[in-house]
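ok so i was messing around last nite and threw this chain in just to see what happens. nothing serious, just curious
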Amino acid sequence: MNNRFVLSGCGTALVTPFKDGAVDYQSYASLVERQVEAGIHFLVPLGSTAETPCLEDDEKLKVLELTREIAGDKTILAGVGTNSLKQTLRNMKLLGEHGADMFLVVVPYYNKPTARGQYEYFKAVASETDKPVILYNVPGRTGTNMTAETTLRLAEIENIIAIKEASGDLGQIKAIIEGAPDGFSVLSGNDDQTVDIMKMGGAGVISVASNIAPSLVVKMTEAAARGDFNEADSLNARLIPLFENCFVESNPIPVKAGLAAMGLIRNELRLPLTTSEDSTYDLMAKTIDGLQNMI
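result:
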């Protein structure tokens, strides 16, 4: 009998706002409230969009606790992955009792592990927690792709329940969907591929663009989930400029520029990331203006 929690719908990979170098918890709380009001299905704090490598432990805890306080019974998927097994396990222990329902674990970056190394790493991670683990494959950031074969081997481990797939390789993603055991969810890691992946049987998206337009991305995934692909395709077509422009510079530079243009946060990041080019800010402002009656 399959007792896995099925993760589905739209989850927002939340940004971490800063003000004069410090985490702007007031603005962060407002962002989370906006997500909840938009009907977001789950929340993903402390991922790469959150600039987590540049956050201190006390900041991570406060961000997660604040998310839990505001999100109520929404599922919270906390990013804990690093390129060190010891450090990843440390993050899990740090965050596990402060509001995280599940853990998002990225393929280790920089090390460039082999398929065997990836399997053994994730197997070790999963063995150290009773909470669900979600794999995250994003070779554009990590330098290493996790193949469908490795993902499907890992999907047999009981508490590995899903993957955020951002390889961009629809053939690989299709193979995972078709070969996955019951209850294993495949979530798009690229906003602009969400509908295509859901047409193949994917479960939803962990979205960057939903920081800006949560209600629209929620509506798009809900339409796709019920098989209304006319509606899903229509919403996707309207959102494609936002999806694409959120990545004209390294994420989260453009999405922070967009949120700043909306007056929701300051346009501030921590080094090594810098604020957007003026052209990116103007592009995001123009893109959001084109959706203004909808978001």
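not much to say yet. Residues 9-226 form a domain with the TIM Barrel fold (CATH 3.20.20.70).
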